[in-house]
Amino acid sequence: MPEMPEVDALVGFLRERCVGAVVADIELASFAVLKTFDPPVSAYTGLAVTGVSRHGKFIDIEVDGLHLVIHLAKAGWIRWSDQLADKRLKMGNGPIAMRLRLDAGDGPHLGFDLTEAGTRKGLAVYTVRDPQEVPGIAALGPDPLAEGFELRPLLARKIQVKRLLRDQKIIAGIGNAYSDEILHAARLSPFAIAEQLDDDEVARLESAVHDVLTEAMAASAGKPASELKDSKRARMRVHGRAGETCDVCGDTIAEVVFADSSLQYCPTCQTGGKPLKNRSTSKFLK
Hints:
Layout: H1 4-18, E1 22-28, E2 49-55, E3 58-63, E4 66-71, E5 76-81, E6 96-103, E7 110-116, E8 124-128, H2 135-138, H3 161-166, H4 176-186, H5 199-220, H6 225-235, E9 254-257, E10 262-265, H7 267-270
Antiparallel strand pairs: 1-6, 2-3, 3-4, 4-8, 5-7, 6-7, 9-10
Helix pairs in contact: 1-5, 1-6, 4-5
Family: Belongs to the FPG family.
Catalytic activity: Hydrolysis of DNA containing ring-opened 7-methylguanine residues, releasing 2,6-diamino-4-hydroxy-5-(N-methyl)formamidopyrimidine
Pfam family, one: zf-FPG_IleRS
Protein backbone atom coordinates (compact mmCIF):
# COMPACT_ATOMS: atom_id res chain seq x y z
CA MET A 1 0.00 0.00 0.00
CA PRO A 2 1.41 3.42 -0.90
CA GLU A 3 1.94 5.47 2.26
CA MET A 4 2.86 9.05 2.98
CA PRO A 5 6.45 9.00 1.61
CA GLU A 6 5.46 7.32 -1.67
CA VAL A 7 2.32 9.44 -2.09
CA ASP A 8 4.35 12.58 -1.45
CA ALA A 9 6.85 11.51 -4.09
CA LEU A 10 4.02 10.78 -6.53
CA VAL A 11 2.63 14.26 -5.86
CA GLY A 12 6.00 15.82 -6.69
CA PHE A 13 6.29 13.65 -9.80
CA LEU A 14 2.82 14.66 -11.01
CA ARG A 15 3.24 18.32 -10.11
CA GLU A 16 6.33 18.55 -12.29
CA ARG A 17 4.56 17.00 -15.28
CA CYS A 18 0.94 18.10 -14.96
CA VAL A 19 0.83 21.71 -13.80
CA GLY A 20 0.12 24.01 -16.74
CA ALA A 21 -1.20 21.24 -18.96
CA VAL A 22 -4.84 21.18 -20.00
CA VAL A 23 -7.15 18.26 -19.26
CA ALA A 24 -8.06 16.76 -22.63
CA ASP A 25 -10.17 13.96 -21.18
CA ILE A 26 -10.86 11.81 -18.14
CA GLU A 27 -11.61 8.31 -19.38
CA LEU A 28 -13.23 5.78 -17.05
CA ALA A 29 -12.85 2.04 -17.40
CA SER A 30 -14.62 1.34 -14.10
CA PHE A 31 -17.75 3.03 -12.80
CA ALA A 32 -16.97 1.70 -9.32
CA VAL A 33 -13.78 3.76 -8.98
CA LEU A 34 -15.68 7.07 -9.18
CA LYS A 35 -17.26 7.86 -5.82
CA THR A 36 -18.90 11.20 -6.73
CA PHE A 37 -20.95 12.62 -9.57
CA ASP A 38 -20.93 16.40 -9.05
CA PRO A 39 -19.04 17.94 -10.72
CA PRO A 40 -19.08 15.40 -13.58
CA VAL A 41 -15.76 14.32 -15.06
CA SER A 42 -16.75 16.17 -18.25
CA ALA A 43 -16.49 19.47 -16.32
CA TYR A 44 -12.70 19.11 -16.17
CA THR A 45 -12.18 18.98 -19.92
CA GLY A 46 -10.48 22.09 -21.25
CA LEU A 47 -9.34 23.31 -17.81
CA ALA A 48 -5.70 23.68 -16.80
CA VAL A 49 -4.04 21.77 -13.97
CA THR A 50 -3.03 24.41 -11.42
CA GLY A 51 -1.56 22.30 -8.62
CA VAL A 52 -0.98 18.87 -7.11
CA SER A 53 -0.91 18.33 -3.34
CA ARG A 54 -1.23 15.66 -0.66
CA HIS A 55 -3.68 15.15 2.20
CA GLY A 56 -2.51 12.14 4.22
CA LYS A 57 -2.48 9.35 1.61
CA PHE A 58 -4.81 11.22 -0.78
CA ILE A 59 -3.52 12.81 -4.01
CA ASP A 60 -5.26 16.09 -4.87
CA ILE A 61 -5.01 17.33 -8.47
CA GLU A 62 -6.39 20.87 -8.66
CA VAL A 63 -7.90 21.77 -12.02
CA ASP A 64 -8.81 25.48 -12.20
CA GLY A 65 -10.80 25.42 -8.95
CA LEU A 66 -12.03 21.85 -9.22
CA HIS A 67 -10.28 18.92 -7.56
CA LEU A 68 -9.63 15.39 -8.78
CA VAL A 69 -8.81 13.46 -5.61
CA ILE A 70 -7.32 9.96 -5.72
CA HIS A 71 -6.87 7.38 -2.97
CA LEU A 72 -4.71 4.48 -4.14
CA ALA A 73 -5.91 2.13 -1.35
CA LYS A 74 -4.01 -1.15 -1.05
CA ALA A 75 -3.19 -2.01 -4.66
CA GLY A 76 -3.68 1.14 -6.69
CA TRP A 77 -0.91 2.86 -8.63
CA ILE A 78 -0.21 5.59 -11.18
CA ARG A 79 1.37 4.60 -14.49
CA TRP A 80 2.67 7.67 -16.29
CA SER A 81 3.15 7.88 -20.06
CA ASP A 82 4.60 10.60 -22.28
CA GLN A 83 2.79 9.02 -25.22
CA LEU A 84 -0.63 7.63 -24.36
CA ALA A 85 -2.43 5.45 -26.88
CA ASP A 86 -4.90 7.35 -29.05
CA LYS A 87 -7.62 4.77 -28.50
CA ARG A 88 -10.01 5.59 -25.65
CA LEU A 89 -10.46 3.24 -22.73
CA LYS A 90 -13.42 0.90 -22.66
CA MET A 91 -15.34 -0.29 -19.63
CA GLY A 92 -14.03 -3.64 -18.49
CA ASN A 93 -12.44 -5.74 -15.80
CA GLY A 94 -8.80 -5.03 -16.60
CA PRO A 95 -6.29 -3.39 -14.24
CA ILE A 96 -6.82 0.14 -15.66
CA ALA A 97 -9.61 1.99 -13.86
CA MET A 98 -9.15 5.55 -15.18
CA ARG A 99 -7.00 7.56 -17.58
CA LEU A 100 -6.19 11.25 -17.24
CA ARG A 101 -5.24 12.59 -20.66
CA LEU A 102 -3.39 15.92 -20.79
CA ASP A 103 -2.40 18.38 -23.50
CA ALA A 104 0.76 20.39 -22.85
CA GLY A 105 0.47 22.25 -26.16
CA ASP A 106 1.35 19.55 -28.65
CA GLY A 107 -1.69 17.31 -28.48
CA PRO A 108 -3.42 15.04 -25.90
CA HIS A 109 -0.52 12.64 -25.47
CA LEU A 110 0.61 13.08 -21.85
CA GLY A 111 -1.03 11.59 -18.81
CA PHE A 112 -1.42 8.57 -16.64
CA ASP A 113 -3.42 5.42 -16.14
CA LEU A 114 -4.80 4.73 -12.71
CA THR A 115 -4.42 0.99 -12.14
CA GLU A 116 -5.35 -1.52 -9.45
CA ALA A 117 -4.04 -5.05 -9.05
CA GLY A 118 -5.96 -7.96 -7.57
CA THR A 119 -9.64 -8.66 -7.12
CA ARG A 120 -10.28 -6.61 -3.97
CA LYS A 121 -11.12 -3.14 -5.24
CA GLY A 122 -10.47 -0.19 -2.96
CA LEU A 123 -9.17 2.41 -5.42
CA ALA A 124 -11.23 5.61 -5.20
CA VAL A 125 -11.55 8.80 -7.27
CA TYR A 126 -13.51 11.86 -6.15
CA THR A 127 -14.55 14.86 -8.27
CA VAL A 128 -15.15 17.75 -5.86
CA ARG A 129 -14.96 21.53 -5.57
CA ASP A 130 -13.26 21.37 -2.18
CA PRO A 131 -11.07 18.48 -0.95
CA GLN A 132 -12.83 18.69 2.42
CA GLU A 133 -15.89 17.27 0.66
CA VAL A 134 -14.06 13.92 0.57
CA PRO A 135 -15.07 12.16 3.83
CA GLY A 136 -11.66 10.56 4.30
CA ILE A 137 -9.88 13.92 4.02
CA ALA A 138 -12.33 15.70 6.32
CA ALA A 139 -11.70 13.07 9.01
CA LEU A 140 -7.89 13.03 8.78
CA GLY A 141 -5.77 13.45 11.87
CA PRO A 142 -2.65 15.65 11.88
CA ASP A 143 0.27 15.07 9.53
CA PRO A 144 3.16 13.60 11.57
CA LEU A 145 5.75 15.75 9.80
CA ALA A 146 3.77 18.98 9.97
CA GLU A 147 5.20 21.85 12.00
CA GLY A 148 3.94 21.69 15.57
CA PHE A 149 2.90 18.03 15.44
CA GLU A 150 2.73 16.45 18.92
CA LEU A 151 2.43 12.70 19.31
CA ARG A 152 2.15 12.48 23.09
CA PRO A 153 -1.45 13.82 23.39
CA LEU A 154 -2.59 11.35 20.73
CA LEU A 155 -1.41 8.37 22.79
CA ALA A 156 -4.04 8.78 25.53
CA ARG A 157 -6.05 5.88 24.12
CA LYS A 158 -6.53 2.32 25.28
CA ILE A 159 -5.62 0.74 21.94
CA GLN A 160 -2.62 -1.09 20.56
CA VAL A 161 0.08 1.29 19.39
CA LYS A 162 0.26 -0.42 15.99
CA ARG A 163 -3.43 0.25 15.47
CA LEU A 164 -3.07 3.85 16.64
CA LEU A 165 -0.29 4.58 14.17
CA ARG A 166 -2.41 3.23 11.30
CA ASP A 167 -5.64 5.00 12.22
CA GLN A 168 -5.95 7.86 9.73
CA LYS A 169 -8.34 9.72 12.04
CA ILE A 170 -5.58 9.90 14.67
CA ILE A 171 -2.45 10.35 12.52
CA ALA A 172 -2.55 10.90 8.75
CA GLY A 173 -0.37 9.03 6.29
CA ILE A 174 1.13 6.05 8.13
CA GLY A 175 0.15 2.57 6.99
CA ASN A 176 1.09 -1.02 7.68
CA ALA A 177 4.67 -0.93 6.41
CA TYR A 178 5.90 2.25 8.07
CA SER A 179 4.14 1.45 11.35
CA ASP A 180 6.19 -1.79 11.44
CA GLU A 181 9.36 0.18 10.71
CA ILE A 182 8.56 2.85 13.31
CA LEU A 183 7.86 0.32 16.05
CA HIS A 184 11.07 -1.56 15.25
CA ALA A 185 13.09 1.66 15.45
CA ALA A 186 11.33 2.55 18.74
CA ARG A 187 11.90 -0.97 20.14
CA LEU A 188 8.22 -1.35 20.97
CA SER A 189 5.83 -4.26 20.67
CA PRO A 190 3.04 -3.63 18.13
CA PHE A 191 0.62 -4.93 20.78
CA ALA A 192 1.72 -2.42 23.44
CA ILE A 193 -1.17 -0.29 24.70
CA ALA A 194 -0.68 3.36 23.76
CA GLU A 195 -1.84 4.92 27.03
CA GLN A 196 0.41 2.60 29.05
CA LEU A 197 3.69 3.68 27.43
CA ASP A 198 6.13 5.23 29.90
CA ASP A 199 8.02 8.46 29.27
CA ASP A 200 11.06 6.73 27.80
CA GLU A 201 8.91 4.63 25.44
CA VAL A 202 6.97 7.70 24.32
CA ALA A 203 10.21 9.57 23.64
CA ARG A 204 11.54 6.65 21.57
CA LEU A 205 8.28 6.46 19.61
CA GLU A 206 8.28 10.22 18.95
CA SER A 207 11.83 10.04 17.61
CA ALA A 208 11.08 6.97 15.52
CA VAL A 209 8.00 8.52 13.88
CA HIS A 210 10.00 11.59 12.90
CA ASP A 211 13.20 9.83 11.85
CA VAL A 212 11.67 6.92 9.89
CA LEU A 213 9.28 9.13 7.96
CA THR A 214 11.82 11.89 7.33
CA GLU A 215 14.34 9.38 5.96
CA ALA A 216 11.67 7.71 3.82
CA MET A 217 10.48 11.04 2.41
CA ALA A 218 14.05 11.99 1.49
CA ALA A 219 14.72 8.58 -0.09
CA SER A 220 11.51 8.71 -2.15
CA ALA A 221 11.72 12.33 -3.29
CA GLY A 222 12.56 12.81 -6.95
CA LYS A 223 12.11 9.18 -7.93
CA PRO A 224 9.87 8.40 -10.91
CA ALA A 225 6.62 6.61 -10.16
CA SER A 226 7.95 3.41 -11.74
CA GLU A 227 10.74 3.12 -9.13
CA LEU A 228 8.93 3.97 -5.91
CA LYS A 229 7.59 0.51 -5.06
CA ASP A 230 10.96 -1.22 -5.40
CA SER A 231 12.68 1.59 -3.51
CA LYS A 232 10.25 1.22 -0.61
CA ARG A 233 10.68 -2.56 -0.41
CA ALA A 234 14.48 -2.25 -0.45
CA ARG A 235 14.46 0.15 2.52
CA MET A 236 12.31 -1.98 4.82
CA ARG A 237 14.19 -3.41 7.83
CA VAL A 238 11.39 -5.63 9.21
CA HIS A 239 8.25 -5.15 7.14
CA GLY A 240 7.87 -7.89 4.54
CA ARG A 241 11.02 -9.63 5.81
CA ALA A 242 9.67 -12.46 7.97
CA GLY A 243 12.24 -15.23 8.31
CA GLU A 244 15.16 -12.95 7.50
CA THR A 245 17.82 -11.71 9.92
CA CYS A 246 17.33 -8.47 11.85
CA ASP A 247 20.23 -6.21 10.90
CA VAL A 248 20.23 -4.66 14.39
CA CYS A 249 20.47 -7.70 16.65
CA GLY A 250 20.75 -10.75 14.38
CA ASP A 251 17.50 -12.40 15.53
CA THR A 252 15.02 -13.81 13.02
CA ILE A 253 12.23 -11.44 12.04
CA ALA A 254 8.84 -12.86 13.03
CA GLU A 255 5.33 -12.35 11.71
CA VAL A 256 1.73 -12.19 12.92
CA VAL A 257 -0.90 -12.93 10.28
CA PHE A 258 -4.41 -11.53 10.47
CA ALA A 259 -7.51 -12.13 8.37
CA ASP A 260 -6.61 -9.47 5.82
CA SER A 261 -3.20 -8.18 6.89
CA SER A 262 0.04 -9.07 8.64
CA LEU A 263 2.78 -7.42 10.65
CA GLN A 264 6.47 -8.15 11.06
CA TYR A 265 8.66 -7.49 14.09
CA CYS A 266 11.92 -8.49 15.76
CA PRO A 267 11.39 -10.46 18.99
CA THR A 268 14.75 -9.41 20.48
CA CYS A 269 14.43 -5.72 19.60
CA GLN A 270 10.73 -5.33 20.38
CA THR A 271 9.22 -8.00 22.63
CA GLY A 272 11.97 -9.13 25.01
CA GLY A 273 12.62 -12.23 22.93
CA LYS A 274 9.06 -13.52 23.27
CA PRO A 275 7.05 -14.39 20.14
CA LEU A 276 3.67 -12.71 19.78
CA LYS A 277 0.53 -14.78 19.53
CA ASN A 278 -0.94 -15.05 16.06
CA ARG A 279 -4.30 -13.39 16.63
CA SER A 280 -5.80 -14.33 13.30
CA THR A 281 -9.22 -12.91 14.09
CA SER A 282 -7.93 -9.42 14.85
CA LYS A 283 -8.17 -6.64 12.30
CA PHE A 284 -6.15 -3.44 12.10
CA LEU A 285 -7.65 -0.30 10.65
CA LYS A 286 -6.79 0.50 7.06
